[in-house]
Amino acid sequence: MTDLELMSSLAEEEKTKILLIVLDGLGGLPMTPEGPTELEAARTPNLDALAARSICGLSTAVAPGITPGSGPGHLSLFGYDPIKCLVKRGVLSALGIGFDLQPEDLAARGNFCSVDPETGVITDRRAGRIGSELGARLCEKLSQVQLAEVDQVFVKPVKEYRFTLILRGADLEDGLTDTDPQETGVPPLPVKATRPEAEETAQLINRWLDKAREVLAADAEENDHPANSCNLRGLSKEPGLPKMREIYKLRCGAIATYPMYRGVAKLAGMDILPTGDAIEDEVETLKENWDDYDFFFFHVKKVDSRGEDGDFDAKAAVIEHFDQVLPDIMDLEPDVVIVTGDHSTPAIWKAHSWHELPVLLWSRFIRPDGAREFGERACMTGGLGHINHVDLMPLAMANAGRLAKYGA
Amino acid sequence: MTDLELMSSLAEEEKTKILLIVLDGLGGLPMTPEGPTELEAARTPNLDALAARSICGLSTAVAPGITPGSGPGHLSLFGYDPIKCLVKRGVLSALGIGFDLQPEDLAARGNFCSVDPETGVITDRRAGRIGSELGARLCEKLSQVQLAEVDQVFVKPVKEYRFTLILRGADLEDGLTDTDPQETGVPPLPVKATRPEAEETAQLINRWLDKAREVLAADAEENDHPANSCNLRGLSKEPGLPKMREIYKLRCGAIATYPMYRGVAKLAGMDILPTGDAIEDEVETLKENWDDYDFFFFHVKKVDSRGEDGDFDAKAAVIEHFDQVLPDIMDLEPDVVIVTGDHSTPAIWKAHSWHELPVLLWSRFIRPDGAREFGERACMTGGLGHINHVDLMPLAMANAGRLAKYGA
């Protein structure tokens, strides 16, 4: 891996354009040992033709055997070491609901839970998986629990028993432990500081939790529901990553339909380009902004969604849908194109997985290999070999003629 | 990567001989998507026959996407981490002109430039690209600018507007900034120390620059030329690398026709074997010295030169020329042979590039693979897979039976 300081010392301004296309959860598995993967089963004449003119390979998003969440899967594609640049759950939760997180904000992922009113021990870590409607009403109520010491406390529903807590104010420090003991039969843990500077913030949050739990206990008693307490995890501030503009000297635009991916792109310093929900809308946005950026992150979400559903055919259909718009994208005449995913989501696994991602890299300066179609097996013998996501941006930069020689 | 301390703890004396053949800038690209690379187009029956008996692969000189200069490209071949062991421009410039750099010397790459006599701002960073003759005369003149505090100041012409400055004396420290602001319309910068120990050296060099610029201004006025000032970059001392004799317990000889490569070999502690300009002369030198060394670095420069010229056929012709002498080399019965390059120089790119290098490793103890010829595409599916230059020396050592078992 090339470190970001070296990269920024070598990066040069050029007129070339780089397009990073991320088909979320692209990598797949056969449903039967002899069968094709979703990508191999999909009819993708345009991707196949592009692969035949590209250099292909298989890429590891984080490390062998590691299943990436959306944060690490994308940060590594943007060239950040996904281990060093871990974005914690609180920040990701805030990004995932499209919350406009500020550098001073402290965010936490919250779960409503059930506790025994007598003993205080947790009886259900997810409060019987209460519905989103009740969850939203409880968030409304908790939003009224404010603290004199901070400017504002936000409590935002995520889904069902999940919420996001954001504290906004000066002097909030991260380095804080979770309250969720990850088991039942014990009480929630207090928030503790893992470094001295976070001591006051820990006490502040514990005070908020005391008040919030009182409110929840009263509401649960009154309305007869199981969500009489809550826990917090992944308390964190946004990590203050070096921005892609500084690292790569690229004007970067992100085209993504889901808040999570817009959020991760924002952490990397990209401009978020407003777009519609359909893939065609995203292509339209790409066209409209083509002249104003040097780098585009183009994200297609639904490949992953159908993989998580376990729907092999539907996942293949989303890939086919993307394939149909590829010629319109290539008509824009990018100088470098990468197509890959942030992680695999095999339909047979119904979740993110650790499997390597098929990747193609096209430019005028690649050595063509034997891969004649875009698929996991074709990429397995491709000229890129087995590569890592963090190495893709340096390769894209090189192919765009945007990296100076290292050493005289 | 195996670190050098581990390597030296495992290295053992043996009678075996290792031959590292570096065809400078070997890696190439097709001129058209379907076409061959320079190496693939070259008629190389001897390299092909050797490749068929070897294990082959593609090797990254520094890191994916990084285009190596000659320094890093060779240091990694000699087993040094090319990021940690960066040799700066001043030292490389001195090595490139064959200057016999001593450990206490401080070297800088110099450029003659033009400044506005009234305001002192730079108007041309390369002094109108003055010719080598004027450059040499100015160096002669600047050689008379000496300093009481150092033993000697050398000013040596490189080419056109480029020169090398070397200060020789005790107590010179590196950790110094460049004077070249990399833009016109602003004055040259003063040399600053990046660490306290270098403070005095910085002041010393600034004093030399004041005097040197006075001399240049007067000469330019008198003789009506644009080189009325100068800038310094990459001020540095030789990096004091551990020597290959200590790391590998090998007696190392270098056969190279250009000063730069002899210089880098010297940094690694090799003996520099005097040789003539032709490849045949280099082979003769190899024969003459065969009994006296365990390791030879055999460098063929012109492959790179023709790539930089953008002359595909001429680059292929140099490779063919080398192929013709290969049987004479193999007749010496080396135990391990590696053939590769320090970086790619595709004719279509006309410069060093980031592309992986074809590599073959021959010994009696390799697993032959399917590669039946020596070329980028054949190596793409070779048994070494995708490898890194820094790993080649450990493999050579192992194949030479010169590495003890690690751990009991």
Characterization of the model:
Two copies of one chain form a homodimer. Chain A is an alpha/beta fold and 408 residues long. Chain A has two domains: 4-86 and 241-399, Alkaline Phosphatase, subunit A (3-Layer(aba) Sandwich); 93-236, Alpha-Beta Plaits (2-Layer Sandwich), CATH 3.30.70. Helix content of chain A is 33%, strand content 18%. Chain A contains 14 helices and 13 strands. In chain A, the strands form two sheets. Chain A has an eight-stranded mixed beta sheet with strand order 9-8-10-1-11-12-2-13, with helices on both faces. In chain A, strands 3, 4, 5, 6 and 7 form a five-stranded antiparallel beta sheet that branches. In chain A, a hairpin with a 6-residue loop joins strand 3 (106-115) and strand 4 (122-124). In chain A, helix 4 (70-77) crosses helix 9 (259-267) and helix 11 packs antiparallel against helix 12. The two termini of chain A are 21 Å apart. Chain A binds chain B through residues 1-3, 6, 10, 53, 365-370, 381, 383, 385-387, 391, 393-399, 403-408, and chain B through 29-30, 33-34, 37, 58, 62-73, 82-83, 86-87, 89, 92-93, 96, 109, 234, 346, 348-349, 351-355, 376-377, 380-381, 385-386.
